[in-house]
Design goal:
This protein has 428 residues and is α+β, with helices and mostly antiparallel strands. It has helices spanning 14-26, 66-80, 90-99, 113-130, 172-182, 282-296, 306-310, 345-361, 410-427, and strands at 5-10, 32-36, 50-52, 103-105, 109-111, 134-137, 141-145, 150-153, 157-165, 186-188, 190-200, 214-217, 221-239, 245-254, 264-274, 302-305, 335-336, 371-378, 382-384, 392-394, 397-399.
Length: 428
Amino acid sequence: MTDRVDVLVVGTGPAGLSAVFSLLAARHDLSVAAIDSSGVSTGGLCNDCKMNFTFPVGFPEEYWTAEQAAPLLGETASHLVPSILPTRDVAVYTRRAERLGVRLLEVRQSHLGTDGGVHLAHELVKAVEDLGAAVSLHETLLDVRAGERVAVTDRREIPYKALVVAPGRRGFAFLQSLMDRTGIPYVDNVVDIGLRLETREANYPVVRDYYDPKFLFPDRVRTFCTNSGDAHVVKEKYAGREGREWFSLNGHAFSSGRGTGTGLVNFAVLKTVRLTAPLASGQEYAEMLGQLAMVMGGGQPLMQRVGDFRLGKRSRAETFTGDLYDFAPTLASCTPGDVSLAMPAKILRAIWKSMKLLDTIVPGVLHPSTIMYWPEIKLYANRPCFIDDSFQAAPGIWLIGDGAGTSRGITAAWASGIRAAHGILAAL
């Protein structure tokens, strides 16, 4: 067993790093340790690294007000030092959207790309080490004996005074398991489900004016996580509660310094689904959909060209590229098939309706060659029942970041770390 630390932080993504920075900036005498099961800072910092600096983007409104977020956004910017991207002709797209009952949010954005984000993550980890934090990578939290205030990892036992858990979206199931074991009540009934679209940049030229346009459609549908330039669709592996693995899709782009890129753009179209009794678990619902996609795709996600979808036929490997289907998918390991056989009809109808509206606002996005990848599922549905305003979920345990539902993105995750640190400092 190691010596007791004042604060143990689990996760070195933006939420965890922010908590460390804030704690040590206020109290140089604190002993702070941070562990991460990965080999580098995890989360959105290392996946395209898009940062939004406009409330309420990324800030779940059940936990945040504009007054709470504003000062923390300024503090967040002082650490992440964003270079805000210019926007052009946004008013044109806004007018088109409004005529259709669609909102376009204009957001102050910064984009480093995956390579730039990894570099920033390494710099931030080194910075907290220089402040005195003990950072241990490739170390996994296994259990917490909350009554004793002892964390058990795959290497050791760590006594603590305060524990901060910030596992990110991919740690969603881990966090649920931890809350179950420690008796922290939570609600898990909201999940975002949808498609990732990939098309030529010429078919979605709005990205030349606005890097990551945020369109909000009726039926709780929105665009999310746009990537262009050197852009690629990627898959992320998730392990379910019973060990059954499945894939969700995502997108990323490298910085412009790497070259001219693919000439493609990808983005998600997601519908927020709020489940009610008797089915209460968004996690289990998402797992079942992910597993169905694995069955339909022979162990891989599905992809279908818009042209085939409109004709009511499945896409096939032998005809997936050629003629109007004039570009190769960046995630070629996906299985050509029929998305409509695997996607719930009510969700697909709402998303297809939104895609048609988007094609009116930005004509071309529904070109026959556009690829629809299934599934993209965002697992940030955990809503712990916090006992105070600083995201303390049980005596001595703070839960923050996307996996805990306190944020939806890098900047809000960083802000949630600051807010938790304020509570910890008061408690200590």
